[in-house]
Amino acid sequence: MNVEERPVVGIDLGGTKIHVAAVDAEGAILSSARARTPLGGGPEPVIHEMAELIGVVVKGSGAELKDFSAISIGVPGAVDEEEGVVEWAPNLEWRQVPLERLLQAALGHPLPVFLGNDVDVAVLGEHSYGCGRGTSDLLGVFVGTGIGGGIIIDGALHSGARHAAGEVGHVILKKGGPRCRCGNRGCAEALASRTAMERQVKALIKKGRSSIVPDLLSRSGTPRLTSSVIARALAKNDKVMTRVFRRAQRNLGLLVASLINVLDPEMVVIGGGLCERLGEQMVGRIRQVAHAHLLLKERLDQVKIEPTLLRDRAAPLGAAVLARQRLLVEGARRGPPGPEIEVPRH
Amino acid sequence: MNVEERPVVGIDLGGTKIHVAAVDAEGAILSSARARTPLGGGPEPVIHEMAELIGVVVKGSGAELKDFSAISIGVPGAVDEEEGVVEWAPNLEWRQVPLERLLQAALGHPLPVFLGNDVDVAVLGEHSYGCGRGTSDLLGVFVGTGIGGGIIIDGALHSGARHAAGEVGHVILKKGGPRCRCGNRGCAEALASRTAMERQVKALIKKGRSSIVPDLLSRSGTPRLTSSVIARALAKNDKVMTRVFRRAQRNLGLLVASLINVLDPEMVVIGGGLCERLGEQMVGRIRQVAHAHLLLKERLDQVKIEPTLLRDRAAPLGAAVLARQRLLVEGARRGPPGPEIEVPRH
Questions:
Q1: d(CA A72, CA A121)
Q2: Mutate which of B187, B261, B294 to test chain A, going by most A C-beta atoms within 10 A?
């Protein structure tokens, strides 16, 4: 079988969970597995867990590791693609981790390992197999504990001069606004991420507003305002949560409008855990606010703003797309196979 | 002579002046001419003036109109490239003007006429012949009565799905801030354009602050805060002008940081009349503020922020670049010339 026809392993390495999928050449998931990310012990237990899950999905796909052409990983941070190194992944507390080499060692197999940013690969997934299929220019905005983005131009990922493009969470929306974890003030991330919503909900409760969120939090076993807590509070028409959520939607709408005015994509896909859960309930008002703030309002119908279609499969599927693109580039670098030399028989 | 070797006419059609240049295949200006844009009489006198200036530079280059391969125009607004129509140019008060056809009629010659946005062509000029030479990804931010931008990715202009990319003046920097002419609040243009500076200077003077600006304005014969009035007031250390200018620089720095966080270009070139005049005096503080607000601060040295090198030649030279690109595309569409058919002799 040609390299292009062999399956690849696509991995979404998140700060909360690891999601591994065996993906065939048409983008079908043959087998998949998930586990919690073992945090706090450095890279070693995480890489061990990834190797375990890879074993599970390879077996589940009915093949062997040597039948796969590559492993490809969406990483929540900055990567050095050439060297196969995770430069910085704040949620994992990793700096300068040679993930390609360590994973090959853990697997005991020299299969190529490709790395990409998690949001970039999720946008690649939506572009190849999700709601962005058939578009030439696609922008992805992913809302989670932070806000990340990915940009596809002329069908290819735009990674930028320092591999740092797409940091849409650090567009300054409100000069002098709340402090962002990047150190600046008024970034979109400081106004509309889940972390920002959590801060705003807690501030309102501290002011004495009545809300069911503290009750939901204590039942959920984590002090973090997760997507599921937000969704449940909204479903119960909790006033504090509704107010904070609507403000976040408005800020996301302003961000999306600013980005459309700069990039003019065919489509904006909104993703991340909260949008996977709420879909149109989240995107509806973002779209409305964004449309109201576009410069070329007469051509509104030409800019689509849609919720993620692939949900949590976007990143592993996109990682598989990334692997195929890199294999093609490497194949082209090596050149076409030469003519077969006929050995003269004596 | 091949089409690629023949000179082209590059035109900067501005709301204040028209600048026409005969440009050879290496980007050298053979001859140029300028005139005030005759406003208030619709397209006809403007097109008549352009035709006159074209005659002057063609003659000045020592050639004839038929020796040129194309005319190419940077227009201050939105154009339909395919149809050769100016869709909307607010400073000229034009809507749906078939400029290609009208100019060909005025010239009495069917030379191809190409249209592009004025900022886009200026960025093309800086990319081919100016400070952006050799870069792959370049962002241009042009500050005038408005704020416009142009984006070059992988060496080519990124025009977007609706030919509307690069509207960097309508990134929202200060949610709820001053009203912009686009109808929104807090756009970069409403905070840092020359129009915004004019409004801020007048507001401070109305509050009783002492300034030499009113005196400079009455001597300049226009109520508009032109680049030359700003430069003269700054040179005299006028407190009001200095305060307003520094605030604009800070806002431009925040805008540039936001755009670098999204696009991650190799270089940002700052242009427009005020920057042509002030150069580093304007860009120094923009660079400082932008660098302080970048996400990847450890790779600062990889992002250059520079003042325009070509000044008012950027747009006519860039228009010439646009013409050559379009001629190449059209040539490729027509395919290579077929083999010459030998006519049998009897």
A1: 10
A2: B261
